[in-house]
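This section describes the prediction task in plain terms. A model, or a person checking by hand, is given the sequence of a single protein chain and must write out its three-dimensional structure as a string of tokens. No templates, partner chains or ligands are provided. The sample shown here is typical of the held-out split.
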Amino acid sequence: MKPVSPATSLRRAPVQRRSAERLTRILDACADLLDEVGYDALSTRAVALRAGVPIGSVYRFFGNKRQMADALAQRNLERFTERVTERLKESTEGGWRTAMDAVLDEYLAMKRTAPGFSLVDFGNQIPVGARDAEPNHRVADRLTDLLSGYLDREPDDALRRTFLIAVETADTLVHLAFRMLPEGDEQIIEEAREMLRAYLARVLD
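The expected answer:
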């Protein structure tokens, strides 16, 4: 199973610190507006106004709002990876069960608190980016690379397939939980946790 290449939607990567800070403000504004008005009503002009930057600065990085949302999804994945990494540093024991709880708990925390995440997350909720970008494949690949050392497992095709199945399952059930209740239906979340434990126990134990 070949890893999926990281997605990038930036027309131009920031080089100077000021440019990087401007990109951060643009993505922060995009995230806030997604929560306030939704994707359909989102516009590059509104993002520029909220970020306090000229409209040309937005177009310097992005050709349209779709590319901007895809960049936000990629930033979400980077932040998610950092959160899981920090969580696992606190516990060197527990094997895959500790790792699974860290992954699911941090995803739920971002789902509940990160601006714009409920619409974009890692690119699953709206048609952002290229059709072959496969957000869940990117997430599974990232988790394979991140957790293989922690689990003392070879990041081979079998492990990538295992994490892909787990990610697809969790993605479907967590989104169901948040469709049922704005804060996430805890009973559905616990069912998802039990399903993941049962599947991963059969594969990883």
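For orientation: Confidence is low (pLDDT under 50) at residues 2-7, 128-132.
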